[in-house]
Design brief:
This protein is mainly beta and 104 residues long. The protein has strands at 2-7, 10-15, 19-23, 32-35, 38-42, 48-50, 59-69, 73-79, 84-90, 93-103.
Length: 104
């Protein structure tokens, strides 16, 4: 049984027990979060229920494990023969969650 949820402008395929990294949720470690924006959910017999656009009454609960920062990426811009070079770094703040129950 799996579900497709949306959070932080991205879509994730999740199953019970999965540990995923999503955009920053701003919650403390150990707290519970419920995702009610479920795009699709599969049943135990393999049938897929696709929402229009969301599945009515479907929820995915999860537990927040921790909040951390991802590896640094380097943004480098250059225009040849123009003496133009810019270097910038970025570290995205992410939240690691563990998927609990899928209700649908």
């Amino acid at each position: 049984m799996y579900a497709i949820i949306t959070t932080g402008g991205k879509q994730y395929k999740v199953q019970t027990g999965d540990i995923i990294e999503v955009e920053k949720l701003g919650l403390e470690a150990g707290s519970e979060v419920t995702f009610d924006q479920v795009l699709a959910i599969s049943s135990a017999d393999g049938k897929l229920n696709i929402g229009t656009p969301m599945v009515e009454g479907a929820k995915v609960s999860a537990k927040v494990l921790d909040e951390f920062r991802a590896k640094k990426i380097v943004v480098f811009k250059m225009k040849r023969r123009k003496s133009y070079r810019r270097t910038q770094g970025h570290r995205q703040t992410l939240t690691r969650i563990e998927i609990g129950a899928i209700q649908g």
